[in-house]
Design goal:
Family: Belongs to the thioredoxin family. DsbA subfamily.
Protein name: DsbA family protein
Distance between the termini: 54 Å
CATH superfamily of the largest domain: Glutaredoxin
Helix content: 55-70%
CATH class of the largest domain: Alpha Beta
Largest sheet: 5 strands, mixed
Strand order of the largest sheet: 1-3-2-4-5
Domain Thioredoxin: 33-230
Strand content: 5-15%
Transmembrane segments: 12-33
CATH architecture of the largest domain: 3-Layer(aba) Sandwich
Number of domains: 2
Number of helices: 7
InterPro entries: Thioredoxin-like_fold, Thioredoxin-like_sf, Thioredoxin_domain
């Protein structure tokens, strides 16, 4: 402050030059920030998923795509499926505005033996192999309905085979062979890799046209669908 108010001409020259340099640096900084703000979020925040062969609900030509990552041992996923998803389905999926793909993210059983997060996902995929989307959804509904403590093994192969008996259209001999031989395990592991590659760290995680929603409430998801449809 002393130099800014001094009478020396050299100081005034330094002051002018210094001010010009400072303004130039500020201008460059502002330009860089603005440029980053217009180009970075879209590319970094939008994820692309391989949806080929993934179970889905809705019409294939629906304009908005939802992707959910779930673990059958996850209590929040059970809540989402039973209490939140029906509202989304009624308002957006049944009306053809959106479709929803389901991708397995079995992580809660990683420290258990056997890993029944993986086994439950395998069972749903075995049902999908036989009767497509309806089989996956039927098996998924029954597994969530029978959900046990997330810290304990409850989705054993024996239990899952018992539950599958309530799913319409399944050949139980084929289902048992599929589950006993871990025929769908590679697909489940590929699903899990998609989740980790996308930075998913919680379930359920819901993406709307590749953008992760801030939470899984019907209000938040609904607003994201409406915005994506514009």
């Amino acid at each position: 402050m002393t130099r800014l108010n001094g009478g020396n001409s050299n100081n005034r020259i330094f002051l002018v030059v210094g001010t010009l340099v400072a303004l130039l640096l500020i201008g460059i900084t502002v330009w860089a920030v603005q440029r980053g703000q217009t180009s970075t979020p879209t590319s970094a925040g939008t994820k692309t998923f391989d949806l080929k062969g993934q179970p889905f609900i809705g019409k294939e030509d629906a304009p908005v795509t939802l992707v959910t990552f779930e673990d059958f041992k996850c209590p929040n996923c059970k809540n989402f499926e039973e209490n939140i998803f029906p509202e989304i389905k009624s308002k957006y999926i049944d009306t053809g505005k959106a479709k929803l793909y389901k991708i397995n993210f079995p992580f809660l059983g990683d420290r258990l033996d056997p890993n029944d997060s993986v086994l439950a996902a395998e069972a749903a995929e075995c049902a999908y192999d036989q009767t497509g989307n309806e089989g996956y959804e039927g098996m998924s509904t029954i597994i969530f309905r029978a959900q046990g403590d997330e810290s304990q093994v409850w989705a054993t192969k024996e239990k899952l085979e018992e539950l599958a008996g309530s799913v319409d259209g399944l050949d139980m001999a084929k289902f048992k062979t599929c589950l006993d031989t871990d025929a769908t395990k590679a697909r489940v592991e590929a699903d899990k890799k998609q989740a980790t590659d996308a930075g998913v760290n919680a379930t359920p995680s819901v993406f709307v046209n590749g953008v992760l929603t801030t939470d899984f409430s019907p209000e938040t998801i609904g607003k994201a669908i409406d915005a994506a449809a514009k």
